[in-house]
Specification:
47% strand, 5-stranded antiparallel β-sheet, 439 residues, 4 helices, mainly beta
Length: 439
């Protein structure tokens, strides 16, 4: 696949804008003087913005009451979240409280929202102390609890000269965070031994990452990145299965996996949710393997192998994604990477290496009619790190900005299959800067 580079002149100009933008973002030295004098605000949209795709990055937040008109900019605005890497942000249902994970550090801030760029940090919880690991991931599962989680997989060898591959040992750390008290209490375990059923482990299957948990009854379901170890190369190869980690809830006991072969790939996503409940209480789960993109069902604690919604098949092209959003009544929206198109350099990865991506699109999925609509969006989108969108009053809101240039809030009528949405407020960014969500 041929790689194309963005125009250097535009990159430098955007970079100058980026420096000016960041230098003028609000600092939080006076938050104790401002926020307590203002009442908590509910029902505003909260817009999240990130600067830097690599290991050094910042995350900024501000609330806006109306995203359908005007402009939304972080030039001279925005509350700077505590972030060594791009923060993982969640809000309460009414928007009055914000939770933010400082990834690679393991601390989780709880803030109250007081309108505009006025936030008040009320407490910070360090999850790395009870769990014994800093690189945890965090998901708010409902307004009462969140999950803080991590998994470590290590190849085990034996036999002559300790060179015979046996399996991967998988150790899971999970804490159930009480969002009112902002601690685990006694509800955490840092050394859960995950044993795969049957011969899966000895055949080389293992899980290297978990994320996007949901609670269903007395069970906790985590999306999982599944790999199959190749003894000949000593590296992970492609998998022909899909896994979901399941534990008893809230006891965090009986760790196991449910698996299927009717689709293959990972279910953990990246920063976008991968699992949602439909009206029947079934878990609708995204499965992506870098070519085929599907939505499947988990029903009565196992995969429903009679059902698959093929996103890539309906689009008629290879596609990849990190997650999706459920709008209700059988309608979902999925950002996806157009793998049949040329890649461009987007930024750098966490190691400082240049990163590349094909352009991204957005599709409306109708699970009732098994149809899809490829929505009209700007060219040059990069939604790799996009975290959240919202549905309000029958409208789906998403921030879409091509890399380094002006974009807009796009608003789609959930009940309409029209590919064209309403173009809302203008949003601005610079080089290696992007909007990561609406909350």
């Amino acid at each position: 696949m041929k790689i194309k580079f963005r125009n250097l002149k535009s990159t430098l100009l955007s970079g100058a804008f980026a420096i000016a933008l960041l230098s003028s973002c609000s600092n939080n030295d006076n938050e104790g003087d401002i926020a307590p004098t203002l009442p908590e605000v509910k029902k505003d949209f909260q817009l999240a913005f990130a600067s830097g795709s690599g290991s050094i990055s910042g995350t900024y937040l501000q609330g806006i009451s109306d995203l359908s008109i005007g402009e939304a900019s972080f030039f001279g605005k925005g509350y700077s979240m505590t972030s060594s890497r791009t923060a993982r942000v969640f809000t309460s249902t009414d928007g009055s409280i914000v939770y933010s994970l400082n990834y690679t550090v393991g601390t989780i801030d709880k803030l109250t929202y007081h309108g505009g760029e006025n936030y008040k940090k009320i407490t910070t919880f360090d999850s790395s102390i009870p769990l014994g690991v800093k690189a945890v991931r965090f998901t708010k599962m409902n307004d009462k609890v969140g999950s803080v989680h991590n998994i470590v997989a290590t190849a085990m060898y034996g036999g002559t000269n300790n060179t015979e591959y046996l399996k991967h040992k998988m150790t899971v750390a999970i804490g159930i965070l009480d969002l009112e008290a902002m601690n685990f209490g006694s509800n955490f375990k840092k050394d859960i031994d995950l044993v795969l059923p049957g011969n899966l482990a000895s055949e080389g299957y293992y899980i290297s990452r978990i994320d996007c948990p949901v609670i269903s009854g007395n069970k906790l379901y985590y999306g999982a990145s599944v790999s199959k170890f190749n003894v000949a190369t000593g590296k992970a190869g492609e998998t022909d299965k899909t896994f979901t980690l399941v534990l008893d809830y809230p006891s965090l006991t009986n760790a196991t996996v449910i698996s299927t072969s009717h689709v293959k790939g990972s279910t953990n996503g990246y920063r976008t949710p991968t699992q949602h409940f439909n009206e029947a209480g079934e878990i609708m789960q995204m499965v992506s393997n870098g070519k085929e993109l599907n939505i499947v069902k988990i029903k009565d604690g196992k995969y429903d192998e009679s059902y698959v919604y093929s996103v890539s098949g309906l689009l008629g092209k290879p596609a990849s994604s990190n997650g999706w959003f459920y709008a209700g009544n059988g309608i979902g929206y999925i950002p996806y990477e157009k793998l049949d198109q040329d890649k461009i350099q987007i930024g750098v990865d966490s190691k400082g290496e240049k990163s590349y991506s094909a352009p991204w699109g957005l599709a409306r999925m109708d699970f009732k009619t098994n149809t899809i609509v490829d929505l009209t969006v700007p060219n040059g989108l990069w939604l790799q790190q996009y975290q959240n969108s919202v549905v309000r009053d029958g409208k789906f809101y998403i921030a879409l900005t091509p890399v380094g240039v002006q974009g807009n809030i796009y608003i789609y009528d959930v009940n309409s299959a029209n590919a064209d949405g309403t173009v809302g407020a203008k949003v601005f960014s610079g080089a290696d800067q992007y909007y990561i969500g609406i909350f």
